[in-house]
Amino acid sequence: MTSLPASTQKKLGLVIDLDICVGCQACATSCKEWNTQGVSAPLSDDKPRSAEPMGTWLNRIHGYEVKEQGQQESRIVHFPRSCLHCETPACVTVCPTGASYKRAEDGIVLVNPETCIGCKLCSWACPYGAREYDYPTGVMKKCTLCVDRIYNENFAEEDRLPACVKACPTGARSFGDLGDPASDVSKLVADRGGYDLLPEMGYKPTNKYLPPRARRDQQTFAEPLPKSDGSALEKLFAWADRLMTSAKASARANETDLSDRLEG
Asked: How many whole angstroms separate alpha carbon 210 and alpha carbon 20?
């Protein structure tokens, strides 16, 4: 079985903000695009346009309907899921060939495709469902934190980020050293009460999740919205708004119904 390093110099990982993730799938698609040509390549796709598509994805997003205490209406929380790069990953210790391993220099968990025999023991051991078996190649695949991006000196410094972090349009994903209490990601976790996924399992995942904030409504504002100050600039904007609204209404009224010409 594969052994773990006694300690790691860094704990590189992700912090995911569930409050602002909109479930747009940008992280999943950018991950697929980058890794199907990178260190994890290839990532298979089988019958992608059929009723039963199959493929290998290293990043998946789930949506859950939840209801907060004291709220009558529910809300949708989008939950991205990928490898959590645990401190004591079971997927590594069960590997019979040493193909799954944890790097001592940065804590990233990887799979060596040259020695992976596709036995799937690691996928059964992982409680987070983060391993993906690639059937055409017979090899297990997983998130690498885009190790071939973050250390690539040909990239500008601001581009040395995992593809999912770089692509997120809302900034819901952050990347950094969670072993450094002074890092931006560690401060973010401390400020927002970031938590581990399934801490009772004892695998100590590096990746953290930030919980959704309490829903805001009109009763949560401490002060009412500011009233009009009657300034000339505000009057100008009000006049422009009335003018544009009137123009749009006039244009709609003058539209010609051509639907009868499209029949037949």
From this structure: 10
Other Cβ atoms less than 10 A from the Cβ of 66: the count is 10
In the structure, what pLDDT confidence band is assigned to residue 264 with cuts at 50, 70 and 90? very low
Cα distances (Å, whole numbers) of residue 249 to 50, 133, 237, 244, 254: 45, 57, 18, 9, 9
Cβ-contact 208, 184 below 8 angstroms: no
Instruction: Specify whether the CB–CB gap between 96 and 121 falls below 8 A.
Output: yes
- Residue 210 bridge partners (DSSP): 17
Does residue 77 carry a pLDDT above 80?
yes
Is residue 120 within 8 A of residue 140, CB to CB? The reply is yes
Q: Which residues pair with 229 in a beta bridge?
A: none
The reply to whether omega before 42 is within 30° of 0 (cis) is yes
**80, 11, 71: which is closest to 217 by C-alpha?**
71
